[in-house]
Design a protein that fits this description.
Elements (H helix, E strand, L loop, with lengths): L5 E4 L6 E4 L5 E5 L2 H7 L4 E7 L3 E5 L3 E6 L5 E6 L6 E6 L5 E5 L13 E3 L15 E2 L21
Parallel strand pairs: 3-10, 10-11
Antiparallel strand pairs: 1-2, 2-5, 3-4, 4-9, 6-7, 7-8, 8-9
Amino acid sequence: MLQIPASGRCQCGECRYTVSAPAYVAYACHCTECQRLSSSAFASLMHVPSESVELTGGSPATRERTADSGNVLETWFCPSCGSTLFARNSSRPRVRTIHIGTLEHAERVEIEAHIWVKRKLPWVVIPKAHRVFEGAGDWSEDYADDPSRYCPS
């Protein structure tokens, strides 16, 4: 279990942040865009309240793109090393999506779900106990204590 507050940083250490609230959900996204963004088979992500994320060092650059859903995704990344730190989805403006690999002690985060598995690479094996979504995830049960933050698209 990740201890809160938690801290994270980019690969070179120029950009740093803290998270002061526990995650609503931690998951792996297997969509093609996350494969490209992470240069891997999937991206490991977690949702936290937006106000719980505080930049503590550096000045990340941002990039916006429109997803297939029509939602606008804004991503913060280090301008020096290119590491992606976190993102915002226009459908959930009060949530930040942390890229788990940037956290100190990322090994303490437990992935519990997988989304866009219809795009997963064939050699990826998903644990049987994990929730699986062919497309976008339904996080309504994860936001049960704070449903105003969850706005399904």
